[in-house]
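Report of the visiting student (M.T.), summer placement. My assignment was to run the structure pipeline on a short list of targets and document each run. The first record concerns DUF3027 domain-containing protein.
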Amino acid sequence: MNATTTVDPAVDPALVDAVDVARAALLEEVPADQVGEHLTSYVEQEGALTHVFASTHPGYVGWEWAVTIAGGDGRITVDEVVLLPGGSAIVAPPWVPYKERLQPGDLSPGDLLPVDDDDPRLVPTYLVGEETGEVDRAQIKGVAADLGLGRVRTLSVEGLDLAAQRWHDGDGGPEAPIAKSAPESCWSCGFLVRLSGSLSEMFGVCANGNANDDGRVVTYDHGCGAHSEVKLARKQQPAPVPEHAFDSFSVDLETF
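After the run finished, the structure tokens were exported:
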């Protein structure tokens, strides 16, 4: 019995001792130079146990061979032989769908990014039904106009919250380096164009062509050095131009 074997009273001792049987089954599948020492064993279920051997394959450093055997009535059978990553194995990172991997700026001209029908960021816009009366139709049209007339779907509460959080945490938020060193905040800047709806409570768009954030959404507590009311300190102002000197030692003949 190997010293690293996990013993379970419910497991047939013959399975625990069958290290050579498991190794022989493994050598029928892979070359001997790819099989290392016996590492451990563990119970799969009642009547089944897996023996683990180190992999010495140069392309699978840190991986392990797992041989599952089962027994009963004095017989031992081999269920499967697989190569599994160990604790130090180099494996591919977890799969992330391409939609979740995309970052702002990744889309190129002509690329399409369809939205799922059940995307929680969007909800159906109110539409006029065939059976709606004239009065109800007018009321629904008013609601549809507020939400965005002509659009099949519009932002849900969750979609608005996600956008607000993303903008707040981005380069136009209060934690941006340029905002931390700004003399004033955007809320008092004359170049700020306020948004409408619920986002107007926290966000606007910069309209200063000289600012880094021109045309971008910024939070009211964002800021930069191009604030409309910023003033230079006396020491920061350019030196005044000296007055013209009058040359009294020569004669301008053109004046005579």
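Strands lie at 35-45, 48-55, 63-72, 75-85, 122-124, 153-155, 192-194, 203-206, 217-219. Residues 158-228 form one domain. I thank the supervising group for their guidance throughout the placement.
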